[in-house]
Amino acid sequence: MARSHWVTLLAAVLAFGFSPAATAANLPHNPASPHTTYYFKPAEYPFNFLLPNDMQSRPRVYGTEYDCRIRVYEDGPENVYQAFVTGRFTDPSRFISSVACFQTAQKCDAYLNFMRGYLQLVNSAACQRGYASIF
Question: Can you spell out the DSSP letters for 68-105?
Answer without folding.
Answer: HHHHHHHH-GGG-EEEEEEEEEETTEEEEEEEEEESSH
